[in-house]
Amino acid sequence: MQTERMTDWRHRRPGSVTRVKICCIGSIDEARLAIDLGASALGFVSKMPSGPGPIGEELIAEIVPRVPPGIATFLLTSETRAEPIIEQQRRTRVNTIQLVDSVEDGTYAALKRELPGVSIVQVIHVADAGSVDEAMSAAEHVSALLLDSGNPRLEVKELGGTGRVHDWSVSRIIRDRSPVPVYLAGGLNPSNAAEAIRIVEPFALDVCSGLRTDGKLDVAKADAFMTQVRNTTQR
66-75 as b/e, with b when 16 or more CB fall inside 10 Å? Predict the structure, then answer.
């Protein structure tokens, strides 16, 4: 499931099942478990200023080649300049770059030029109505948007993995206006997955801490989450 710029994905076929990206993958065993449970994308967290789940790029590069075709591999990067992001992709060989912070001018163009075929997903940390304008501006340049609950304005930036739910009514506005697919993240877990799908109707849900116990991917939680997703169809 490599994300592509396809405007018709914004309006899913009635009765379709929402896809799931399981993030913070920390081992080959976790990657295998996530895929077995039905995840269509895996997230690998590189160095971050804060938050759970970062692993070394050497380990990411070890796991990625073992992921079967058809499963998207996301590298979460906090870099804001094109050159280090390009170097990260070339070391890890992921097929999708997830930008968790705002990037410098010219970065999108450079990534597309130097990494053809690699999808670019921009994270929007939903705070208020101003996030809608931020999302629409980014959507012109990327393959998909991912709506999360971080706070990049803090002295030590929160760029994901907060376990907090943001205002889904703002996320719904972004989803309705976006010309590219929208992933929904932030505080998702088995108890609210169905509600998130009904309210936002995103292309996919993105989950990390809500499926973990003591930092490890929890089979029971992950299975319950996937069951909720499968049982909740979009209108």
Answer: ebeeebbbbb
User: What CATH number is associated with residue 185?
Assistant: 3.20.20.70
1 inside domain: no
Helices (H), 75-129: 82-92, 107-114
Quick check: is 10 in a domain?
Answer: no
Q: Is 210 in contact with 187 (CB distance < 8 Å)?
A: yes
Does some domain include residue 5?
no
What b/e sequence results for 163-186 when a residue is b if at least 16 CB atoms lie within 10 Å of its CB, and e otherwise? Answer: eebbebebbbbbbeebebbbbbbb
Answer for the pair 46, 60: CB distance below 8 angstroms, yes or no.
yes
* 195-227 confidence digits (pLDDT tens): 999 999 999 999 999 999 999 999 999 999 999
Whole-model pTM: value is 0.90
Pair of tokens at residue 68: 């079967």
The total number of structural domains that make up the chain: 1
Give CA–CA dist 122/102, Å, rounded. Answer: 8
- Please check whether residue 8 lies inside any domain of the structure: no
Domain of 227 in residue numbering reads as: 17-231
